[in-house]
Design a protein that fits this description.
The chain has 10 helices and 15 strands. It has 302 residues and is α/β, with parallel strands linked by helices. The chain has 2 domains: 175 residues, Metallo-beta-lactamase, Chain A; 66 residues, Orthogonal Bundle (Arc Repressor Mutant, subunit A). A 7-stranded mixed β-sheet has the order 1-2-3-4-5-6-7. The chain has a 6-stranded mixed β-sheet with strand order 8-9-10-11-12-13. A two-stranded antiparallel ribbon has the order 14-15. A hairpin with a 5-residue loop joins strand 12 and strand 13. Helix 1 crosses helix 3, helix 7 packs antiparallel against helix 8 and helix 9 packs across helix 10. The termini are far apart. Bound molecules: zinc ion (ZN). The site of zinc ion (ZN) has 6 residues, from loops.
């Protein structure tokens, strides 16, 4: 885990899944907790090296790689853990993530690896959007839904730093996954569009390096164009009525992806569902039931 100094009082803890640190008055606010106990211990090592105490832990969204270490941070420091509503329910009940990926049924064991099923953590209070002082820190909690249902970003106005969670991904991450995880395509695009309007100089997101305003536009364009590609490939798969597994196969084939793990399949299927609902809202897709199959097709021209 590398400690990257963003400003005098803001740090980016770079790892497979990043965390953020804000310092004030000898105390630290931790933004996200990494995947597991080991990640939490590495965060605490960096906090100790800065000679500060953890005041609180803020979780941006309830994906295992962002909150899996929260329970360990809480146990070791006694610091309160805060998260947005909805996300907090999953952080306290991590089984909800494999359950929703498996359409509500008791999940198969392949959905119980630590990247999907994290350790639980009690949440002490819910994060509300807006400018506020929390534990002596000047903060702005900024809604950023789309990748997760109620994801937030954490802004530090005095530092000019926005901890942007998974509101956008660096190009290397998008290229690695091909079809990243989104629960709502329209909200994701709105979140991307909102980022340049925010009054921050540095955007330190959950994966990869922080971006300054100079580099931000190109990376946001890259994200938006990847999403447009996935949605248009989904639309193209509706020329003939098809069920969701056929649509997923067509989109993945078109992107030359070879999905080799059931967990990746189910994560990808969520993104395809998000595309189908986006197309339906736009009047471009319809669904019907025929012979006990739920079929999607392009909306008939009117
Ligand atoms: Zn995430």
């Amino acid at each position: 885990m590398d400690l990257i100094c963003l400003t005098d009082n803001a740090y980016h803890l770079r790892a497979g899944s990043n965390a953020g640190l804000l310092l004030a008055g000898g105390r630290a606010l931790v933004v996200d907790s990494g995947l597991d106990r080991d990640a939490a211990r590495r965060i605490l090592k960096q906090v100790a090296a800065l000679h500060v105490e953890v005041a609180a832990v803020l979780i941006t969204h309830a994906h295992a790689d962002h909150f899996g270490g929260a329970g360990e941070l809480k146990r070791r420091t006694g610091a309160p853990v805060l998260a947005p509503a909805f996300e907090a329910a999953v952080i306290e009940n991590p089984a909800l993530e494999p359950v929703y990926l498996f359409a509500g049924a008791q999940p198969i064991k392949e959905l119980e690896g630590k990247f999907i099923l994290a350790q639980p953590c009690p949440v002490d209070a819910l994060l509300q959007p807006g400018r506020q002082e929390l534990f002596g820190f000047e903060l702005e909690i900024i809604p950023a839904p789309g990748h997760a249902h109620n994801q937030v970003m954490v802004g530090a106005p005095q530092e000019g730093v926005c901890f942007a969670a998974d509101a956008f991904f660096p190009p290397e991450v998008l290229d690695k996954y091909g079809i990243p995880f989104y629960v709502d395509i329209d909200q994701t695009l709105a979140t991307l569009a909102s980022l340049p309007t925010l009054p921050y100089q540095l955007f330190a997101q959950g994966h990869g390096d922080a971006y300054d305003r100079h580099g931000l536009e190109a990376v946001l364009d890259y994200n938006a164009s990847r999403i447009a590609t996935i949605r248009e490939l989904t639309a193209a798969a509706l020329a003939e009525p098809a069920d969701d597994s056929q649509i997923l196969q067509q989109v993945a084939d078109a992107l030359d992806l070879a999905i080799s793990q059931p967990a990746i399949y189910y994560l990808t299927r969520t993104t395809i569902h998000a595309c189908l609902n986006s197309l339906r809202r736009a009047g471009r897709a319809e669904l019907s039931l025929a012979e006990n199959r739920l079929l999607w097709c392009a909306a008939s021209a009117r």
